[in-house]
Amino acid sequence: MTGHHRALQLLRRRPDLAELAAYPFNVDIARDEHGEAVRLASGTALEAVAGDDTGGTFFLCEGGEVLYAGSEGEAGLIADSVDEALEVLIGLPGWHDYTGLDPHADDNTLAAAAAETEDDLREYYGPDLDADRSALLTALGLRELPQAQLIRRLHRALLRTEPDFLLLNAEEGCAYTLLDRLPRPPLWQTVLEPGQADLALLRADRTCWSKVAGDTARRATALRAAQYDRRELDLPVLRILLQHEAHCGATEELRLAAVLVGLHGRDQDHRFLQSLREASVDVHYLLGGFPDTARELSRWAAEFDESNHGEDPADEHELIWAELARRQGRTELARVTLLRLLDDAGPGDADLLAGLAAEFARLGDFTQAARAQHLYASLQDDPGRRGAALADLASLQRRAGDVEVAWRSVQRAVTVLDGPPPPPAMDQVALDLGLPEPERLTPTWRALGLGLSVAEEHFRIARAAAQVGLSAAARASLAAGSALLPELPRPTEALRRLAREVAAELDDGTSALPSIQPGSVGD
Q1: Pairing status of strand 74-79 against strand 177-178
Q2: Which residues, at least 6 apart from 514, have a Cβ–Cβ distance to it below 8 Å?
Q3: Contacts of 18 (CB under 8 A, 6+ apart)
Q4: Which band of pLDDT confidence, cut at 50, 70 and 90, is reported for residue 436?
Q5: Model pTM greater than 0.70?
Q6: Are 341 and 317 in contact (CB under 8 A)?
Q7: 294: confidence class by pLDDT, cuts 50, 70, 90
């Protein structure tokens, strides 16, 4: 990535310039290794190109941007290019002191802050700071810009750190904190803004109703905007949003639209909502306590509204806004929000962790989904819930490419679900008394849908393991899944077919594998 960055190449070819950049400007190209493995959450490439005497590292991003990572787990974007980064770092040798300045301060205030910092630097470096700065910038072909201008440029870059340049610890997956504390708009404002614009459009122009209402993400965001900006004349708009949402089944947006329409208490809306409830069991339960008559519609809607919907978007959980961001196609904004929530989750956040695992999976980020699911599983005390959580964890780990870990997780799932075996002493007592050996009861989870999903996961892990050369794990998982099949009361034909396909893929003629014939199990 460094081939087209002339100033950086000059520093590498000119030891005298490199020495001057390292001291006093603290950009040392010899310190191009970070203290731990890191990666960008977005998955784009990253290359360490320099460091400083605090243990921090300057990284070159795939698009040419420069990211700084400190030794204490903080990171931030500092420039859009190497040239701009060097102009900032050489022009502002005390740049760390300026990351918390008021971005709205005037030029005189910013220049005074820079002057105060550099007066301190001159006590150590001497009077040649300005001359050396000018000489280094000139030699590198860079500009010497007013310091207030450089501070503003630095602030603009720092504010762009999230969502596209979020740095993670590569091993644990935890996010670095922000390098700065500059004010940013709240997430809800960023996500809700397009919905507010669409709501204004719907109010002003009937010809756009179908276009906005027909788009799932735009419809959902417009409904959220209507939740916090309610007007009596919005009923026709709300009806069209409700009618389109009705085609999507029992969604949270359908409930919100039903409430917003129901607050108006009209007969025709009661009839429509009643017809939706009669057509779908899921909608029936979604709109719990729905009144039999239109006379009670507005009362029902008001009570439902009070218990389920807030009046201030700032009061909503950020998971709601992360989901909307994902649906809007703002993948990295959703990801950074989910990562911050996951990093802050604790023992009392089991429900949140389950939601985070699901949202990460919808993003296709199975590594972080597995991380959230692992924490969720660890908080489950009930063996059934814990076993089911471990089975889901195995699926996420497999899709994340951690096949061996997935195999261990699905084994643990079966062990937890089956429970501890009976004490061996009980078998001996039965034999001593001449009684038959105690009957082994098949655990009930096998008779549920969980049994089907656990068996299926065994076969999928076997296939994934074989594809990456883990033949022992592949055969063990296939054998364990095949042993589960006869214990399932009603294995589906799709499951039997998967078992046969995986067995055939693994059977290279060198060892015996389970023989699985069509219709031969569970019948």
Answers
A1: parallel
A2: 478, 479, 482, 483, 503
A3: 11, 12, 28, 29, 30
A4: low
A5: yes
A6: no
A7: very high
